[in-house]
Specification:
Chain A is mainly alpha-helical. Chain A is built from three helices and two strands, in the order βαβαα. The longest helix of chain A has 121 residues. Chain B is 41% helix and 21% strand. In chain B, α1 links the parallel β1 and β2. The chains are: A mainly alpha (197), B alpha/beta (145).
Amino acid sequence: MIEVTKHTRDILLGVAKKRKVYIEGNFLKLLKAPDGDTEFEEYLRLCKEKDSTARRKRLQVTKQVQQQNKELVDKQKETDELMIELQQALESAKESEEEANQLRQEAEEGKDKALEDLELMQKKTQFELISTIVKVALYVIVGVGVLTTVMYGLALMSGTDTQIIGSTWSNMFGILLTNAFSIVGTIMGVKYATEKE
Amino acid sequence: MINSILLVDDEDLFHLVFEDACSILDITLSLEALNSSDEADEKFKQWFPENPADERPECVFVDLNIIGSSYDGIELIRKINFEYGNGCVIGIISSSDDNQEIEKAKSAGAQFWIIKSDDIEPRLEEFRKDYEGYLNRTASFKIYK
């Protein structure tokens, strides 16, 4: 322990009285009042009390700040974790979008293929219809031709007047041949045009 | 009262808490606080063995996980005890109470383990009562919960 001199003691007490400035810190614990000096003893007690009060206050505040810091760190951790989760969710959404785009592309390709197939089937049906019409038309033409020819032949063999049936057969045959060629030409034209498309 | 204490802890706010708590409880008059085990290592290199008694602290409190250091508190205790000479009361002050770590600290030569919390003063008070036993190596390892 350090015992202060009278000179130092007087200065310390004077400063405390006039300017309200007191000794602080652990050095205070090393000071000892001279025996019987109750005034200086009281001064040291007051200094210690003030120092202790200040330290208690600071300790309380520091603990509060420490606690707040801990909470902030915990919150920061939570935020970081959330950010990571968010990032993962965004990446997952991006992947899903890419997958959806790929599926849509595949679906569009499928749709195009189906449309192509449908068009092909329609064309096939059209061809079949045209083919049937042509066949029926040809049968009618050939049938009418054969019928007229048979009637003309019978008229010739039976010796009846063949003027009307002859000109009829001639006209009929001409018309039938013309129509037949016309039909064949039309069919060829249609087929050619369709093949080009 | 402990002549001098060295605290090794990366948290500056805890330095203030520890200093004020020690002052209020009249545990020590001299406290030095360092932020890393590397700094402490440098100091101990100077203190041991050239100048074993003058400057070295009487008691050392080491945090378990010292962020920004090359090694943790247990390794620092091991170095102080086995490389620089076993010359001071030394132990851990940490918020952890992991049994495995406690066992490791014991085998490294730690004499006590104080668990950090908001209310550190009662533990330091209890530690002060046991200190004499640590100083003359009669007290066994103790955990202050």
